[in-house]
Amino acid sequence: YLTELLPLQQLGTTFAQALNGVTKTKEILELPVYESDGDFPAHCDIAVKNISFSYDGKKNVLENCSLYVAEGEKIALIGVSGAGKSTVIELISRFYDVQEGQVLIGGINVKNINYEKLLQNISIVFQKTFLTRDSVLENIRMGSNATLEEVRAAAKEAQIDDFIVSLPDGYDTKVGSFGSRFSGGEKQRIAIARALAMDPDVILFDEPTSALDPEMVGEVLALMKELAHTGITMLVVTHEMGFAREVSNRVIFIDEGVIQEDEPPEELFSNPKNPRLKAFLSKML
Length: 285
Known about the structure:
4-stranded antiparallel beta sheet
């Protein structure tokens, strides 16, 4: 009796999984499509003006926040987990739309920029690196039409080219076979190479070292110091105060959805007056 019942249980489980997949697909298909057709602006300064945002329509994650990032400037966003730092990144890249206020790039509201063109000019490096099972080449070229030479140039800038050419098939090595052998730092540098291969005007980093050991953090910090000397506009969400000190022109402290401090790193770290900032730095430094 039990042997006859087991296939029925397996069939029920499979049916439930299929039904769940259909439900998720329906949710994705019903997501609103961004239909703006404006070009990406010639200049890429970023202005966030009086934005408030809530994920659930009940509690605001950000409350009346404003900040300005000049073209080519490097900004660090710091604060405790859940303060709203990553949300700023998501709104600039238009993963979500603000409920109040505006996000402008080059003086143009992101809602008026063609979404595909927006993502072609803004590269995002997430805290969890996503690699497909395809070749290393295609993982770096993802989202761009970069040639092999351009991919290698980006990989060299990300200090990962030597590692890639040492793989059994070089840039043609399938990640599906070797991905588990990549260290966290190697994966993160591949992700940074991917971002650079797009030749972006803006790079957004969301906790790029959260899953790395101290040695790998040092390697990524060295790479980002190099990027700090380029003309790319860069925002870094980070808990690594070394990044905030050594990579940024300004450090923005966000606390409970509100921008509390916005100062050059030497001023913010040398004499913090905000008691909540003092408490945060006492734990991080």
